[in-house]
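Hey, I was hoping to borrow your eyes for a little while. I've been puzzling over a protein and I'd love to understand its fold better. The fold is given in discrete form, as structure tokens running alongside the sequence. I'd be grateful if you could look everything over and explain what you see. No rush at all, and the record is pasted right below.
>
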Amino acid sequence: MNTVKIVGIGPGHKDYILPIAYKAVEQADLLIGAQRHLEIFTDYRKETYCYSNHLEDLVHTLETSMATKKIVVLVSGDPGFYSLIDFIKDRMGKDAIEVVPGISSFQYLFSQLKQSYKAYLLLSLHGRNLDIGKHLRGSKGLFLLTDRKHSPSQIAKELMTLGFEDYRMVVGENLSYNNQRIEVGRVQTFVDAVFSNLCVVVIDNELE
């Protein structure tokens, strides 16, 4: 039986997709991913399946197709960073998957900031609540994946109430695309800032 390849395709722009990911797509019979992922590979003329938030439907598609098709599941960034590895592995078993790494959003953003991320906590607010103050006090800084509920503005407001108004905050939007936006400033300057739903945020005490 075939295995399912979970393939990381980087922060967004196709220039940041690794050659091994393109090779996996070329060899696949079926590409599975969000619409924005599938659009990158339209020239390959593969059968596609677009999944949304109904991940059980995704598993059903994998289970019914993998016996006869080589399947690639496309994910943003790196598959191991708050992505689909654990979900698919828990339901299908470790031996049923292969993983192709990709460049993560935190790697990309820190490269743009020209600094190391080795002492930062890498966390996600997707569908979860975190004690940001506790994590920030116990580390050099935080890297956060945000969502609609936990916007940069909402994070800034929470940090203000916790006494971190003078910390540095970095917000990355549309990373690697032509309309990329990276804003840097004190936490207090982001209280009324407006960004898209899916951003990344860095918080630390590194203001120059």
